[in-house]
């Protein structure tokens, strides 16, 4: 079947199998390998991307279901050459180690800040509770999101 | 030896511009990960690449009667179907494990654990390969499995390893350490003896990235390129040469970015070999990437020790001796990745941080119908089990003596003047100063206030527990006279080349899986030769580009490869000094090294920088007589001893008396890993290990039903902590440098995984003291805590 969607502001049309998962479409068909595949049960969240601005686990979305919709991946997070504040926050606060969960974490956290620009530590933990990181122990991820929140607030003032 | 309390850096302090040396520095590797430009094994896409999928056994123990692949071969997109029988014809059905056992690449005679590899398919895409697996028809004759480790040596237990000649039972090995008679004498005369059965259940490292490989065999020049999820690319290359008979110089193993290892990516798995065979037979690049269930059911598990701990002491709390008897479950093949002379890893450090009179351990290891493995999950070669045993049994003693567990530990520590300290099992601890570390943790926790709060809560019927663990780790394997893996000495190479403009490239034999080597190794080199970290390229993970070495596991990168990096830099600096003396026309003895430049003693205005020297080394000017041009060096570092980091951990838990749910309220971790290269990275490593500890203590277990079905085969069943299960960690540190390491550094990657489980379990047991509980086994899930509250605690296996 043929599917057309917008990925990181670019419209793409491809011939695919109906059963193709969005995560494999992004990785294997579009070569956007920043989105990772970590489990098959929607538990780990390393595959999180945005579908029309909402974080979804792309291992449990069929590529066909994304047809006509807007998808954003980690590759579409930086604006121009400049890192998004959430990316800069992860860098400043050591919010990543092996980097495997990082794209999914950042997509979720960016979406959180878009809805709630000043989240508490508890709200940040709640937001990422559907995702697993084996390296950081989460505290530095919480700090990273706070860093982004504080710096965005400083810019808008 | 000094203990220094450095001022705590604010979490946002940043000296990214740091010109040279140690301190918090943002990671050089981060920009690619932040932009989704990391390059993991599954990201490798080669022209014409095919995909491989593995058919696995649904049974724990069964004889293979027949395998029919005809329908699979006819399936659309399928290029190749391979069975064990086909591999056997090529002599490739079995491969050696890292413990001198053998393991089936694809089963030929029997399957011996659920999830064992039976056949593989190579097809045009992932989905076509998976489709074809469904069409392979395997007829099994199901056999009785050995699941209960305690029955593995029963006379009527089914024989698992009938592939081994003269094997009549499921015995794997026996091992002992210490002095049995001396220990018995101390126990016989002791005032107090405490005995406790302590189980460390089977768990799994479950890195976020599963295992996989891309094999690309070029038949024209006979070269195999293999991208794989390996923590030890050089060791793997040599083993492929031995297994597959390919010449070693024609094998290039590339470990690209790795999405976490934790020991899971040390062994060679059948899937890697299948990918190689698939590429050789199809003439195309072949990718194999396991899914999460395959990772959990078939790759290297950890722990699975059933331990009887015994401790002898005086009535006033002087520990005299520790004794243990261990039954170790090694699964169907002995696939532990430990140095050959250490079949139980470094479990021999079970005497912990205490100055005692005698110790003895006897261990029996057995085969069962479960996945192979054993040494993984940041265990520092079984020190997790050893520290858990000693820290749990010491708490049992405190319970028996009605003594404060902190006071009991402080009373028995090895004293600073006793280092280097030889334990009763023969380990020589290089340095340590335990009391300040313990006191700092107690201060940070507000220990006295916590005990007061606990007493008040107990009076109200609330359940609050305070758990302490103090650990001594042994990391940095290891001295080649004692330690090798399949005959390969555990030394590490390092090469440093300074380019004419003063920029440098350092080539390492170890491989990062998130530890930040591209940053810390640049800092080590910078500290030694004064070239800024930003000007130093760190190359690793490619056997064609790096010197030989044994890889990253057991917290060995800083103790071994970090030492190599410091020493190779000093070699370069020594040569630079000779060149500087010629440039400045003074004798070598008249030069002072001020980071980054040599200057004439007493005349700071006369100096040359390392960059000046690099240009001269490659330039047209004269060099000292007999000196070759260039500014580079290489080294192979053989450590003289392990390094012994230590730490004091305090955990505070609250337990809901109505639901038995354990909440970790606070966790204070004070680590002493000697010289600290990058405090930010150290803190991150500690945080990760503490989270592992919460998982193991409260949630994680790979369990089996009576038929040998793995009950932890997905992340729905194998529970890993999320951000909601862990507190905001409180960390501190002391610094006791290693006397034999060139920069005084010790490893830290696994300290927190080693030290945190006993602190958490001790806290839970402490909370349950009103119920008379002295011990309860992990994982302390609500139902298991509930049972303990009712006096019905049972072992998990």
TrEMBL record, chain A:
SUPFAM superfamilies on file: 2Fe-2S ferredoxin-like, CO dehydrogenase ISP C-domain like
Top-level taxon: Bacteria
GO molecular function terms noted in the UniProt entry: 2 iron, 2 sulfur cluster binding; metal ion binding; oxidoreductase activity
Keyword Transport: no
Keyword Oxidoreductase: yes
Keywords: 2Fe-2S, Iron, Iron-sulfur, Metal-binding, Oxidoreductase
Family matches, as Pfam families: Fer2, Fer2_2
InterPro entries: 2Fe-2S-bd, 2Fe-2S-bd_dom_sf, 2Fe-2S_ferredoxin-like_sf, 2Fe-2S_ferredoxin-type, Beta-grasp_dom_sf, Diverse_Oxidoreductases
Residues of the 2Fe-2S ferredoxin-type domain: 1-77
UniProt name for this protein: (2Fe-2S)-binding protein
Organism of derivation: Paractinoplanes tereljensis
TrEMBL record, chain B:
Top-rank taxon, per record: Bacteria
GO-annotated molecular function: anaerobic carbon-monoxide dehydrogenase activity; copper ion binding; iron ion binding; molybdenum ion binding
Aldehyde oxidase/xanthine dehydrogenase a/b hammerhead domain sequence ranges: 35-144
Keyword Oxidoreductase: yes
Necessary cofactors: Mo-molybdopterin cytosine dinucleotide
Gene3D superfamilies per record: Aldehyde oxidase/xanthine dehydrogenase, a/b hammerhead, Aldehyde oxidase/xanthine dehydrogenase, molybdopterin binding domain
Renumbered residue ranges of the record's region Disordered: 1-21
Keyword Oxidoreductase: yes
InterPro entries: Ald_Oxase/Xan_DH_a/b (IPR000674), Ald_Oxase/Xan_DH_a/b_sf (IPR036856), Ald_Oxase/xanthine_DH-like (IPR016208), AldOxase/xan_DH_MoCoBD1 (IPR008274), AldOxase/xan_DH_MoCoBD2 (IPR046867), AldOxase/xan_DH_Mopterin-bd_sf (IPR037165), CO_Mo_DH_lsu (IPR012780)
Record key words, sorted: Molybdenum, Oxidoreductase
Pfam families: Ald_Xan_dh_C, MoCoBD_1, MoCoBD_2
Name of the protein described by the UniProt record: Carbon-monoxide dehydrogenase large subunit
Source organism of this protein record: Paractinoplanes tereljensis
């Amino acid at each position: 079947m043929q599917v057309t969607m917008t990925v990181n502001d670019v419209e793409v049309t491809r011939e695919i199998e109906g059963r193709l998962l969005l995560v494999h479409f992004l990785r294997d068909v579009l070569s956007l390998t920043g989105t990772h595949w970590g489990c098959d049960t929607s538990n780990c969240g390393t595959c999180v991307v945005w579908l029309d601005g909402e974080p979804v686990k792309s291992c449990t979305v069929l590529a066909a279901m994304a047809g006509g919709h807007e998808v954003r991946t980690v590759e579409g997070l930086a604006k121009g050459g400049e890192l998004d504040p959430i990316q800069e926050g992860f860098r400043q606060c050591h919010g990543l180690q092996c980097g495997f969960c990082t794209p999914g974490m950042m997509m979720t956290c960016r979406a959180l800040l878009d809805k709630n620009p000043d989240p508490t530590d508890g709200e940040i933990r709640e937001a990422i509770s559907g995702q697993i990181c084996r390296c950081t122990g989460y505290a530095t991820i919480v700090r990273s999101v706070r860093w982004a929140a504080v710096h965005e607030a400083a810019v808008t003032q | 030896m000094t203990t220094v309390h450095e001022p705590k850096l604010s979490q946002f302090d940043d000296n990214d511009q740091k010109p040279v040396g140690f301190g918090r520095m943002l990671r050089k590797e981060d920009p690619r990960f932040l932009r989704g430009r990391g390059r993991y094994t599954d990201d490798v896409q080669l022209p014409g690449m095919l995909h491989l999928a593995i058919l696995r056994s649904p049974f724990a123990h069964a004889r293979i009667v027949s395998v029919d692949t005809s329908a699979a071969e006819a399936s659309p997109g399928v290029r190749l179907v391979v069975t064990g029988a086909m591999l056997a014809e090529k002599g490739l059905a079995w491969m050696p494990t890292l413990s001198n056992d053998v393991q089936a690449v694809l089963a030929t005679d029997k399957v011996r654990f659920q999830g064992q590899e039976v056949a593989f398919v190579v097809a045009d895409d992932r989905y076509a390969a998976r489709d074809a697996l469904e069409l392979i028809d395997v007829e099994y004759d199901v056999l009785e499995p050995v699941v209960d480790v305690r029955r593995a040596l029963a006379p009527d237990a089914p024989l698992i390893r009938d592939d081994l000649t003269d094997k009549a039972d499921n015995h794997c090995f026996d091992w002992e350490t210490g002095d049995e008679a001396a220990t018995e004498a101390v126990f016989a005369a002791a005032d107090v003896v405490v005995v406790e059965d302590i189980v460390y259940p089977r768990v799994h490292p479950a890195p976020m990235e599963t295992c996989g490989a891309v094999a690309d065999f070029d038949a024209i020049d006979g070269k195999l390129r293999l991208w794989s999820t390996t923590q030890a690319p050089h060791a793997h290359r040599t083993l492929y040469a031995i297994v597959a008979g390919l010449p070693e110089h024609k094998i290039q193993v590339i470990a690209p970015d790795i999405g976490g290892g934790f020991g899971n990516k040390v062994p060679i798995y059948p899937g890697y070999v299948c990918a190689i065979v698939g590429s050789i037979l199809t003439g195309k690049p072949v990718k194999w990437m396991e899914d999460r269930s395959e990772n959990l059911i078939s790759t290297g598990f950890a722990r699975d020790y059933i331990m009887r701990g015994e401790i002898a002491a005086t009535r006033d709390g002087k520990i005299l001796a520790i004794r243990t008897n261990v039954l170790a479950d090694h699964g169907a093949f002995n696939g532990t990745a430990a140095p050959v002379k250490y079949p139980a890893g470094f479990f021999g450090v079970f005497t912990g941080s205490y100055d005692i009179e005698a110790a003895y351990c006897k261990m029996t290891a057995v085969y069962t119908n479960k996945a192979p493995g054993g040494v993984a999950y940041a265990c520092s070669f079984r020190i997790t089990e050893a520290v858990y045993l000693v820290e749990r049994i010491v708490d049992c003693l405190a319970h028996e003596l009605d003594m404060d567990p902190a006071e009991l530990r402080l009373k028995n520590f090895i004293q600073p003047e006793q280092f280097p300290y030889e334990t009763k099992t023969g380990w020589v601890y290089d340095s340590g100063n335990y009391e300040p570390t313990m006191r700092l943790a107690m201060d940070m926790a507000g220990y006295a206030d916590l005990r007061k709060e606990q007493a008040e809560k107990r009076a109200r019927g609330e359940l609050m527990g305070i758990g302490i663990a103090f650990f001594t780790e042994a990391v940095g394997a290891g001295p080649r006279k004692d330690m090798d893996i399949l005959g390969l000495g555990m030394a590490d190479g390092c090469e440093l080349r300074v380019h004419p403009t003063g920029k440098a490239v350092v080539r390492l034999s170890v491989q990062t899986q998130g530890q930040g080597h591209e940053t810390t190794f640049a800092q080590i080199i910078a500290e030694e030769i004064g070239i800024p970290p930003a000007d130093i390229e760190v190359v690793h993970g490619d056997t064609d580009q790096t010197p030989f070495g044994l890889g990253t596991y057991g917290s060995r990168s800083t103790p071994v490869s970090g030492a190599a990096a410091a020493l190779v830099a000093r070699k370069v600096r020594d040569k630079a000094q000779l060149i500087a003396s010629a440039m400045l026309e003074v004798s070598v003895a008249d030069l002072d090294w001020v980071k980054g430049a040599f200057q004439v003693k007493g005349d700071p205005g006369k100096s040359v920088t390392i960059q000046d020297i690099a240009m001269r080394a490659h330039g047209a000017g004269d060099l000292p007589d007999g000196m070759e041009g260039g500014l580079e060096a290489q080294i192979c570092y053989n450590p003289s001893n392990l390094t012994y980091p230590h730490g004091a951990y305090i955990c505070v838990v609250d337990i809901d008396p109505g639901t038995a749910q354990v909440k970790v309220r606070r966790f204070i971790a004070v680590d002493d890993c000697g010289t600290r290269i990058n405090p930010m990275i150290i803190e991150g490593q500690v945080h990760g290990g503490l989270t592992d500890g919460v998982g193991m203590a409260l949630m994680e277990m790979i369990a089996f039903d009576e038929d040998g079905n793995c009950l932890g085969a997905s992340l729905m069943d194998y529970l890993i902590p999320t951000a909601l299960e862990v507190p905001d960690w409180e960390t501190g540190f002391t610094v006791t440098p290693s006397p034999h390491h060139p920069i005084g550094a010790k490893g830290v990657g696994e300290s927190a995984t080693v030290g945190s489980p006993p602190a958490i379990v001790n806290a839970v047991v402490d909370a349950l003291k009103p119920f008379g509980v002295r011990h309860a086994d992990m994982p302390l899930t609500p139902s298991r805590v509930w049972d303990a509250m009712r006096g019905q605690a049972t072992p998990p296996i």
